[in-house]
Design a protein that fits this description.
disordered N terminus, 2 strands, single chain, 100 residues, 4% strand
């Protein structure tokens, strides 16, 4: 069966836009670089911040570019990063979404 792209109709499009606005666009490549420099393995870091290793891998490889503010905050805290802009895909983005 051929794949068909999902096209939101009516209010569904606004719901998808609201969901995207409630997430944070992350630079997974920067995340991987900082994690590697700290010397912690992906598996250990994923366990530390309560994520599956496959989910963390998808973030770091750029396959998953939008994550929840809670996951973003866990990543920052797990690596001891204090500047909330460190892993943002757009460092000039609105930081009010990131939980303190």
């Amino acid at each position: 069966m051929p794949r068909v792209a999902y096209m939101p109709q009516g209010n569904e499009g606004r719901t998808a836009q609201a969901a995207a606005a409630a997430t944070i666009e992350i630079n997974g490549y920067a995340l991987r670089e900082v994690r590697n420099r700290t010397g912690v393995s992906a598996n250990k870091f994923a366990q530390q911040i309560n994520l599956s290793q496959s989910y963390l891998s998808r973030i770091e490889n750029g396959q998953r570019t939008r994550i929840s503010p809670e996951v973003y905050t866990a990543i920052l805290k797990g690596l001891g990063v204090t500047d909330q802009r460190t892993f943002l895909a757009n460092p000039h983005a609105d930081l009010r979404q990131v939980a303190a």
